[in-house]
Design a protein that fits this description.
It is globular, with a radius of gyration of 22 Å. The protein starts with a helix and ends with a strand. The protein is 53% helix and 8% strand. The longest helix is centred in the last third of the chain and has 25 residues. The strands form 2 sheets. Strands 1-4 form a two-stranded parallel ribbon. It folds into 2 domains: 69 residues, no CATH class; 74 residues, no CATH class. The chain has 197 residues and is mainly alpha-helical.
Length: 197
């Protein structure tokens, strides 16, 4: 009897059988660009789960909005972002108003419509380069790449070498896109999204 109960529990949490998966069109290239911006000192990225659009926001605008809000507003506002009070009346250029309003909507996203697109892990990126190097035919070039991956600045050195080899650079971009597509699919699956073809 215990094993039957365990089987039922496992079936109810099995993501493969989850009926809450949402199918939608997404732009893999845009998500890849967002994930590969690992520094995030200029922009941050969110996926709109209603439209499939990648939302790009200036860190400056996000920081400005966060700084000007009262600390306890998040609890009081709920769904109504039209009536947020600022510590001081913000001077926002007209062209920025829509972006600021959308930034507020994302910051107070109680319906989980806008998950933040995560940065690609450095371990995954490094592993992709290692696996790509194994596909390089020229032994001297393969050795040059392998040497570049040892020590500090491996990513920069790897990309610098590619600049001198246009065909390998093109091959790398194709290879990396395939690997990234799998990583993106895994992330989308983790938030309940199945991309449409």
């Amino acid at each position: 009897m215990k094993s039957w109960k365990l089987f039922i529990v496992l079936q109810t949490v099995d993501p493969v059988n989850d009926n809450h998966v949402k199918k939608m069109k997404v732009n893999f290239d845009e998500i890849q660009k967002a994930m590969e911006d690992v520094v995030r000192d200029t922009f941050d990225y969110f996926l709109d789960l209603e439209t499939g659009e990648v939302m790009t926001f200036s860190e400056e605008i996000l920081a400005e909005v966060k700084e000007r809000l009262y600390e306890d507003d998040a609890e009081e506002i709920g769904d109504d972002i039209e009536y947020i009070e600022f510590d001081e009346e913000p001077e926002i250029p007209d062209w920025m108003e829509d972006e600021v309003e959308l930034a507020l909507e994302i910051l107070f996203d109680t319906k989980e419509r806008y998950p933040r697109i995560p940065e690609r892990g450095s371990a995954a990126a490094y592993q992709s380069m290692v696996e790509f190097i194994e596909t390089v035919d020229d032994p001297a070039l393969r050795e040059e790449f392998s040497t570049a991956l040892n020590g500090k600045g491996a990513f920069r050195k790897f990309k610098d070498i590619l600049l001198g080899y246009p065909k390998e650079r093109k091959r790398w971009h194709g290879y990396n896109a395939k690997v990234m597509k799998q990583e993106i699919l895994e992330w989308l699956g983790s938030i309940g999204i199945e991309p449409l073809p």
